[in-house]
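FORM 7B: Structural annotation worksheet

SECTION A. Query
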Amino acid sequence: MVLWYILLGVLIGWIVEWLIDVIYWRGRIQQLHLQLGDCERSLNEERERAKMLQAKLRTLEDEQKNLRSRINQLESELDRMRNERDAALQQLRAAKSGAPAGASAATPQREGEATVDDLQKIEGIGPKIEKLLHNAGIRTFKTLAATSAERLKGILNAAGKRFRLADPTTWPRQAKMAAEERWDELKDYQDALQGGREG
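SECTION B. Predicted structure
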């Protein structure tokens, strides 16, 4: 008889524990599962938002590159127009000076020749880069000397990756010496350069 009471007590204890598990812990676990699901949904939403922001950032970066390229093109066009204006003013002054007919006919050619310097005398400028500078309206040592290194770097970057390794930092200084015909000083300065860069 005592054994039956013991077994009945064990059974009642198991039933009570099972009820506690069903009523409290399983409900608590379900709540945690729901909260976990909400967190996962929020995380996925944040990931999607981050992807959208990254795509927008890439779009803005592309637009910035296009704007920089456009600015460089406009600056190049402006330089070209300035050179044309200067050449036209020189021709106008020559015409007003009352030079003989034969001399006036030859003057534009001499002026045209004078408006193009050999930019390859500048350390770091080869034929292809010289052509880029000509297209940008930079044809003389004087114009190159007045052009900032940042502007020159923009011209090179806009021309493609193959030109981005060139360092135009010293070009304006070299061009100033060349424009002032300080050739010995320019040669000494170029000899001190390392690959067109200051050591």
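SECTION C. Observations
Confidence is low (pLDDT under 50) at residues 99-114. Helices lie at 2-96, 101-114, 127-135, 141-145, 149-159, 171-179, 183-192.

SECTION D. Sign-off
Analyst initials: ____
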